[in-house]
Design goal:
It is built from 38 helices and 26 strands. The chain has 1047 residues and is α+β, with helices and mostly antiparallel strands.
């Protein structure tokens, strides 16, 4: 601060270095110390550095220093009060834990303590918030030894700390992490302790803190803000995030605050960059056990190349999991054999691990309004009085509209089906009144925020000053950054990225690499448009000149270039034409698209664009809908679920670009040159810039819906917005969304506004009655026709046909994700065709097989329930434990409290026929089953279990064969026999192309019940399960026959 003041006043006279030197000599090196300067001392400083009278500084220097001193005095007072509170709490903490003193190395920074004091769930970044102040001592920095327990076996690990003080490395050493961890623990305890009561914190225990790592702190930050859950309950769930558990053997008085750094550490998370410094010590086991370890004599510790594990450790671990997780799965009764108890324990443990991974995946689903805008019902931590006043104003207007004839007409419109809503003209009748309400509300909002409600200076209807003020008021309520500075760019003209950089924001992620598109030089000369535009030359000239172009020019979005301005043109874009036809094939309209890529403009924009978008998927839509149902049930609202669809009219064209950039956005129509004054579709930065505006408007809608106490989840895909609601709250949701858009100056596409139970979202149809995702029949038919053409063609096929088909398959794979592994031949063909500039290609064998297989899948693939897209939000998974040997295969299915089991003898005719159909060289029952067939048999055991479940049933397969687990998870395998079996299985059960089926690998010693089924005779298995209540044998013979069909 002192440096900046001096630089501002003294740099022109060459006095900067001298004044800084004098200030540092007197110890004035911080803004807060400026309060000690007086007018006399300032004059003395000037006299010391001035050479003559011409160098004397004006009085403004002293005024600024005095003002800075006054502000610093206020800050000093606040700091003093904070330090006093913190000192008092430290005294209470020392008294509670019987500590003579708390070393300075353990004291957290004041700002960290203040954050946790306001909200104990706040995420603290060790690297940014604590590491600069945490430097381990030389002794500690050499190595850190920690005793841990892995699979119930105590082990000794050494953490290296050599990178701890290297700022160029992105990792932290073990010692640095532990010091940061200790400071975090102390800060959290100081925030939770009550200075008025000489008692330990009630909501947190020092022992709990030993499970804290980066991922868990982020989980706490989300969960604590979203629900009234105590920290103790959150920390009790820390087992969900644990892979390596510390040996927490600490004395009662010698807890976290009094322990040495070698006794306290968090778990190692492979995805946590703060613990990657320890990854080089990762154990690489040999093939066998360490016999010295079993005898208790191994001295090699973590450097031992053999396994430090007991043969029955996994079994013991599964048994303990059964006791700890009785709520997850019904455990066996005391009278049942111990093997059944172990089975329920293993099922409970693996099911919990599976659900933990799914819960982590849900935190990666975004709603399209920012990189940190996770699909969830976010809560406001600190409510702003300004935002509350805005919400009160709009809620009052919503009440007035609801009580008027407009509200009644909207209610009647909501009761219609989507097709009926499309034919209705209700919005044409009421939109003028809604505009009047929005105008009145806009003026009231402007008065509350004391800003202007004027339109942007560069032209257009957007109320940038008002939107910025609203976002600034919302920023007071949250720590997440809001993109309100972007509204200044909207007001003055947004930079396209041709003449300067596109300003980044903290709301979106940085690009990891430049564009992969081919670089083109900038073209300034006029050339002919694409053949598509020339084919519709009459329509282009007439329709565009008379209607579209005239309208664009009248709205200020385009401008004709005069002959005296031609020299200012920096680039000319070639035009392509996209015709739109009705069901009868008649041309309805044409849409012109500027090709910024081949004109070279995108090659100019690319290095100036540093960020990219994070768009939602159909999984985000399903999750948002399910959250709406859960919240409605919590409110006692059992009315049907609806989905509000809205669209921005003219989308990109509502934004104006900088004047300098408009000369890169020119084109030619009918020998007349035009330049785009508004954002043009085709520019590489266009989507990014528009979404920044639409995301700001979406966040305002979300916040107002929260104030109105209705569900506020929203999914934004560029200009398409989707919002779930219920029949009971639909009117409020619709009016809030419309009024916010209108008062912000964002025009609504009224003909695309729907609120129904059969919405269209991201290209899919949603059936909210049965909570299912449906493939639109028209798109499914086009995919099947193209697949049939590619799969059966004996002549060269147009590359554009394959490219279009690939685009549709990639779109379908966003929901049916396990089809992606079969798209490789499509990508390879398109890559070669583009590289060699081919227009037609012969269909190769791999592509023909892939097209035929995917076509068979799509013949029966038409829907998927939401709980297959986001399984953790659906019903509990059925569990399949299976195994195979060279004698038999079998498995056990656990569903609720029912046990189903199956057994197949490999010498039976059906099994031999199955092996002969898929395994080359296997002829009949005289052929011996070998160990090389076991992977195929293990996979067959898994698939028979899945086929025994009803369609769309979520399941978890547990197997001790890695190849089978990978095949079930990825729907492909390296071995041709296993790959062929998976392809046949998927044709039978296309519902498994979603995330409905999962598979996890376990140690063979833990899979005891599956071993019993596969390695014993069917008579012995029946005798065993006869003693187990609710156990029932099922026949899988017909399932095997279905798998053998066509082979």
């Amino acid at each position: 601060g002192a440096y900046e003041l001096v630089q501002y006043h003294c740099d022109r006279d060459g006095l900067l270095e001298k004044i800084v030197e004098v200030l540092e000599g007197q110890g004035i090196d911080q803004v807060i110390l400026l309060s000690t300067l007086t007018a006399d001392s300032i004059m003395a400083l000037q006299n010391k550095v001035a050479k003559d009278d011409a160098c004397q500084k004006a009085a403004a220097f002293q005024v600024d220093l005095a003002a800075a001193g006054q502000r610093a005095t206020t800050q000093l007072k606040d700091v003093s009060d904070t330090n006093a509170q913190m000192k008092k709490r430290i005294g209470v903490l020392k008294s509670v834990y019987g500590m003579p003193e708390l070393g300075p190395d353990l004291l957290p920074p004041v700002d960290v303590w203040k954050k946790l004091n306001l909200n104990p769930g706040t995420y603290i970044d060790f690297r940014k918030d604590l590491l600069p102040l945490c430097r381990p001592s030389e002794d500690l920095a050499r190595s850190v030894n920690v005793d841990i327990v892995v699979n119930d076996v105590p082990q000794h690990v050494s953490f290296s700390s050599e990178q701890a003080t290297n700022p160029k490395r992105s990792t932290m050493g073990g010692a640095s992490w532990m010091l940061c961890f200790q400071r975090y623990s102390v800060a959290l305890l100081l925030a939770m302790v009550d200075p008025r009561e000489n008692a330990a914190p009630k909501d947190v225990d020092p022992f709990m803190l030993q499970e804290v790592d980066v991922r868990f702190r982020k989980f706490v930050s989300h969960a604590y803000l979203e629900a009234s859950v105590s920290l103790r309950k959150l920390f009790d769930d820390s087992i969900k995030f644990r892979q390596i558990k510390l040996d927490c053997r600490l004395a009662a008085k010698d807890k976290v605050l009094n322990s040495s750094p070698t006794e306290v550490a968090g778990k190692r998370d492979r995805s946590d960059d703060t613990y990657k410094a320890c990854s080089k010590n990762k154990r690489r086991f040999g093939k066998g056990l360490c016999y010295d370890f079993l005898a208790g004599k191994c001295q090699r510790g973590d450097n031992c190349k053999f396994m430090h594990s007991k043969p029955d450790s996994a079994k013991n671990q599964a048994s303990r999991a059964a006791k700890d997780n009785k709520k997850l799965v019904t455990s066996g009764s005391p009278g049942q054999p111990s093997i059944i108890s172990d089975m329920w324990g293993l099922a409970s443990k693996t099911l919990k691990e599976c659900e933990e991974k799914q819960a982590e995946e849900l935190l990666t689903l975004v709603d399209g309004m920012g990189v940190d805008s996770v699909v969830n019902q976010s809560r406001v931590a600190n409510r702003s009085s300004k935002v509350e006043a805005l919400g009160e104003a709009i809620q009052r207007v919503v009440g007035l509209i609801s009580a008027s004839h407009v509200g009644e007409e909207i209610r009647n419109w909501i009761s219609l089906s989507r097709d009926q809503q499309a034919q209705s003209h209700m919005w044409e009748d009421v939109k003028s009144e809604l505009h009047s309400y929005a105008d009145s509300l806009r003026r009231e909002w402007a008065q509350i925020l004391k800003v202007s409600d004027q339109k942007v200076n560069v032209g257009g209807d957007i109320r940038a000053p008002l939107m910025k003020a609203v976002l600034q008021a919302m920023q007071e309520e949250t720590d997440r950054p809001l993109d309100y500075p972007f509204m200044d760019l909207v007001d003055s003209g947004i930079p396209l990225g041709t003449t300067c950089d596109v300003p980044p924001t903290k709301c979106w992620k940085d690009r990891s690499e430049p564009s992969k598109h081919t670089w083109y030089p900038v073209t300034r000369e006029v050339w002919t448009n694409y053949i598509s535009a020339e084919d519709f030359a009459v329509e282009v000239k007439s329709a565009l000149a008379r209607a579209n172009l005239a309208r664009e020019v009248s709205l200020g979005r385009m401008e004709m270039i005069g002959s005296n301005e031609v020299h200012r043109i920096q680039g000319v874009n070639r035009l392509a034409c996209i015709p739109t036809c009705d069901d009868a094939g008649r041309l309805k309209k044409v849409r012109l698209v500027d090709d910024f890529r081949r004109s070279g403009i995108n090659s100019v924009i690319d290095p100036h664009l540093s960020q990219t978008l994070v768009l939602p998927t159909i999984r985000s839509v399903a999750l948002t809908a399910q959250y709406c149902v859960l919240e409605a049930q919590a409110r006692g609202d059992s009315s049907p679920l609806l989905w509000l669809e809205s669209d921005v009219k003219s989308a990109f064209r509502i934004l104006r670009i900088k004047v300098e950039d408009t000369w890169y956005c020119t084109n030619v129509v009918d020998n007349q040159r035009y330049r785009n004054l508004a954002l043009a579709f085709g520019a590489q930065s266009a989507s990014y810039l528009f979404v920044r505006l639409s995301a700001n408007a979406g966040k305002i809608v979300v916040r107002i819906l929260q104030y109105c106490n209705v569900y506020s989840g929203l999914v934004l895909y560029i200009d398409d917005r989707g919002c779930p609601t219920t029949v009971k709250t639909a009117l409020t949701t619709i009016l809030v969304a419309i009024l916010v858009d209108l008062l912000c100056g964002i025009d609504i596409s009224w003909e695309k506004l729907f609120c129904s139970r059969q919405p269209r979202c991201l290209g899919y149809c949603l059936d909210l009655h049965s909570m299912r995702l449906l493939l639109p029949e028209d798109k499914r038919r086009k995919i099947l026709e193209a697949l049939k053409l590619v799969g059966t063609s004996s002549v060269p096929v147009e590359v554009s046909t394959i490219d279009t088909l690939l685009g549709r398959l990639v779109w379908a794979s966003t929901s049916f994700c396990r089809l992606r592994c079969h798209l490789r031949p499509f990508f390879s063909t398109i890559k070669v065709a583009r590289k060699k500039n081919l227009k037609r290609v012969w269909i190769g064998k791999a592509l023909k097989q892939a097209a035929g297989y995917i076509g068979r899948v799509f013949e029966s693939l038409c829907a998927s329930p939401f709980n297959s897209l986001v399984p953790s939000m659906g019903c509990r998974r059925a569990i399949i434990m299976c195994d195979a040997s060279t004698v038999a295969l079998g498995g056990v299915i656990l569903r609720d409290s029912t046990i189903l089991w199956y057994h197949v003898v490999l010498s039976s005719p059906a099994a031999c026929a199955m092996l002969a159909a898929f395994i080359p060289g296997f002829e009949d029952s005289t052929t011996k089953v070998e160990s090389s067939h076991v992977c195929f048999l293990e996979l067959l055991a898994c698939l028979l279990g899945i086929l025994s479940l009803p369609l769309f049933t979520s399941c978890l397969v547990i197997s001790d064969n890695s190849a089978a687990v990978q095949a079930v998870c990825r729907h492909r395998a390296k071995a041709e026999s296993m790959a062929a079996l998976m392809r046949r299985f998927v044709v039978l059960r296309p519902d498994t192309t979603t995330e409905s089926s999962k598979a996890m690998h376990v140690n063979g010693v833990a899979n005891t019940v599956a071993d019993l089924v596969s390695r014993s005779s069917v008579i012995h298995a029946r005798e065993f399960f006869a003693t187990v209540p609710e156990a029932r044998e099922i026949d899988v013979y017909y399932k095997m026959c279905e798998l053998m069909e066509d082979y």
